[in-house]
Amino acid sequence: MLDRLEAAVAAAHGYTELRQHANTATRVVLRQGAVIANTVEQVAGVSARCHGSGGFGFAAEPDDSDDAIARVMAEARGNAELAARHSAHTNQALPTTAPGRGVWEHRSANAPLPPQARIDLLRRLDAGLRARYRDLANIDLVLQELAIDKAVATTEGALAFTHSPRTVLYAALEYRSGDGTPTRIADVFGGFGGFEDHEETLGSDVTEAALDRLYDELRRKADGVFCEAGMHDVVLDADIAGILAHEAIGHTCEGDLVLGGSVAGPALGQVVASEKITLMDQAGRGMDDAAAVAVHVDDEGTPCRDVTIIDRGVLRSFLHNKDTALELGMAPTGNARAHAYSDEPLVRMRNTCILPGDDRLEDMIGAIDRGYYFTRSGNGQADFTGEFMFGVTTGYEIRGGKLGRAIRDTTISGVAFDMLKAVTHVGDRFVWSPGGWCGKKQIIPVTMGGAAIKTRINVGGR
Amino acid sequence: MSMGSDAAFARDLVARAQAEGADAAQAITREGTAFEVNFDSRRLTLLRSRIIDAATVTAFCGGRKGSATLTGRDPAAVAAAVRDACAAAMASPADPANGVAEDAVTAPASEIGAPAADRDGMVQAVLQHIDDMRLEYPLVHMREARYEFGDLTRSFASSTGATRCERRGSYLTTALFNAQRDGKSTSMAHHGASAFAPFTRLLDAGEFRRLFSDASQSFDPQPVPEKFVGDIILTPEAAWPVLLGPLANAISGYALLAGTTPFRDRLGQMIAVPGLSLYNQPAAADFVYGAAFDDYGLQNDDLTVLRDGVLESFLVDHYISKKLGMPRTAGWWSFRVPGGETPLADIVAATRRGVILTRFSGGTPSADLEFSGIAKNAFYIEDGVVRHPLRETMISGNLQDLLPRIRALSRETVNFGGSEVPAISAGGVTISGN
Fold first, then answer.
1. How far, CA to CA in Å, does A185 sit from each of A171, A371, B362?
2. Beta strand residue intervals within A320-459, DSSP E
3. How far is B341 from chain A (nearest CA, A)?
4. To probe the interface with A, which of B44, B122, B296, B430 has the most A CB atoms within 10 Å?
5. What is the pLDDT of residues A72-91, one digit of tens each?
6. Which of B89, B141, B434 sits opposite A261 (nearest CB)?
7. Mean pLDDT of chain B, nearest integer
8. Where in chain B is the domain with CATH 3.30.2290.10?
9. Nearest CB partner across the interface for A389, out of B45, B123, B361
């Protein structure tokens, strides 16, 4: 395919990106033991994006024939010319970089498994949970695989292919108390790789033991208490710190949101966090080659590089595609990503994380007289202003430096830089999330990582 | 491609699945084009056009079910999708609830909306909008704004012989925006408006004027003075994510299957104030994102979900109706909540102490329908007067408790294309600041 793209783009007039892109997904959903979804999906096609005289044009078709490639290139060029005729934008050329070139297959050495293996795994886990915990009111098990195949060629000489697979098992358990009050808890397992790479672990004692711990936490949560609303000293475990890195900081540092007036724009070079905080958006599969998303060359053909957003408390860099780099007078960072063949590349994060420190979790909890230890988050959102919120689904009181009762669901919020300045400890254990999605016109897979942090934050409750 | 050829492709997929071993099958195809003009406050940023051609084939083999979705019509990909659907079905356990809808019937194809994008007209409308914004809302900055036309034909066929086909051509304008002044930015806000016909002037579409005006008045926000229990007024934009969306999920057939929804035994009971009614009307002529038939090819009929506060119907699709032995009521959701008698301004004036919000930045409600989150694009109200914009203000409560505490529904409603709702005020909500 790369040869065909390279030949086609060589005939282009003016800046052109050409992408052949296939997302292959499987999804099996078990609820109350019933398979309510069992699907295979392949969303595939070609797209072209052209630039000229300040205008961008894009076109896509669900077809990768030579004719389709010619059609999308012509349509995208026509759209770019129509945009340029009406654009008051600068006539400057987009910034150039070294062309991204290479092939990153990331394919499994294991043989693909048949559909029956997916169903068998979920039914086995479901049956095991039901046998061990007869008081569970409901079990939801969802197995999702997504493999992204992208081939990109540009008129600047980029020529790259990446196969990036991810497999995630989502498990949610529900319990109904004597008074009928339902309580739900969920966790995510899996990570980078195809189902054939994860099947053994997901079906092993390791996963069963993790589900046993999840059940134990569910029962404690069912007897849990509502948080006291207000500002509290808290320890945010690694999972939540990772979401924090993505939602509260990462988004405000995306070049397009900086141009939109985000709080980070005027703060470049300033102290925005405790000196214990270093926050990065990492290329490839992250610093330890263990993140759940692989992005080596972005969808504009720019080689991806690690971006240190905050270096020991100082805001150092933003995330860019070519357009925002041009507007802000900076260099592209390899953050232009599109989710599907029919999507245009936008400024997106890749593997975003708070780097680990040297504090032990026990010491962080021990340093709080009255507060909370939050361990899992449901979702999160942030704002141009740096104001953010996360839903917290599991956590515990801290009383006198020790863990206390479990809590019910709550929400935490704050202003990102204020909260980061209040960080006093950063944990020594680093974790990447196995899943992770980001929504911004298009939904796209990302990885979030981090280590536990101790800070002060606004907690919702009664 | 014509509507007829698309239905033929759906029929072909069904026939292929049966030839592959399925004892019953159905297929849905989605075919059309989309064109969008992307822009910000200064310029056109991208013109984008797409060919849409996707299909989902579902195979049933002895009560086992599997589905496959593909894009395009490459013969090898079509054959692979049919094989995948049948293989997925054979891997599934048998479930007597699985199967095509035997009562789906063939009906004449329908067509609604504009036939094709007026590309030049759309570009001109956006350029006019950028100029209008400079003059009328100079503080407001738009990002990720677009004006889009979509032409989509959705076809259905099943092994019973039923065939359905519907084409919709519609326009959408949407924008992410905030206001900026002297280096200060307000919270981001988002709005979208849709219609079957092109918008005469984008600035007049939907609620943009009200929301742009709100953004322009949202500088120097403050937290609420103290934690208190008071009223929230959910503008139509916030009523869905805070109240109606979680309610719909909690009374859906899939929640009943889970067995943990607090509403599972409440059919026929009063769960909200008498002033609240909720109707499902997917086939209504004014819902751009409605549909004539659902994903089982069944006609989308009007349904009364809540009448005067009484829960009259759960939202049950074909599969859940078979699974739980209940009547099938709703395979597609497009809700309408009738407005009340009171203008929104009078609801604000009658509020002793509370918050009016347009966006709710919050977590998914918990299993027991507790919710908490941040009031965004929000203002503090005291003694009937809007006092100041808010920041770092959290609201929390329980949906079950909120429904009987609804105080008023506004006379004004907003049609979002897939729902129409008024502003809703309710009491007894915990409101706290930083």
1. 8, 21, 17
2. 336-337, 346-347, 351-354, 370-382, 387-399, 402-406, 410-415, 425-426, 431-432, 437-440, 442-445, 447-450, 453-459
3. 33
4. B44
5. 999 999 999 999 888 755 67
6. B141
7. 95
8. 3-207
9. B361
Residues 6+ apart with CB under 8 A from B94: B62, B63, B64
Which of the listed CATH numbers 3.40.50.11740, 2.40.10.120, 3.60.150.10, 3.30.2290.10 matches domain B3-207? 3.30.2290.10
Residue A262 · residue A347 · CB < 8 Å: no
Mutate to test the interface with A, among B122, B260, B264 (most CBs of A within 10 A): B260
Q: A-chain residues within 8 Å CB-CB of B119? A: 82
Determine the residue among A27, A38, A240, A408 to mutate to test chain B binding: the one whose Cβ has the most chain B Cβ atoms within 10 Å. A38
Give start-end residues of each CATH 3.30.2290.10 domain in chain A: 2-222
Place of tokens 């934008």: A89
Cβ proximity of B123 and B196 under 8 Å: no
| CB A373 within 8 Å of CB A398 | yes
Q: Which fold has domain A2-222?
A: PmbA/TldD fold (3.30.2290)
pLDDT lower than 50: segments of chain B: 1
* Residue in A342, A381, A460 closest to B372 by CB: A460
- Chains A, B: CB contacts within 8 A come to 254
What does the alpha-carbon distance between residue B335 and residue A343 come to, in Å, rounded to a whole number?
Answer: 30
Beta bridge partners of B67: A39, B58
pTM of full prediction above 0.90: yes
**Of A378, A408, A460, which is closest to B394 when you measure between CB atoms?**
A460
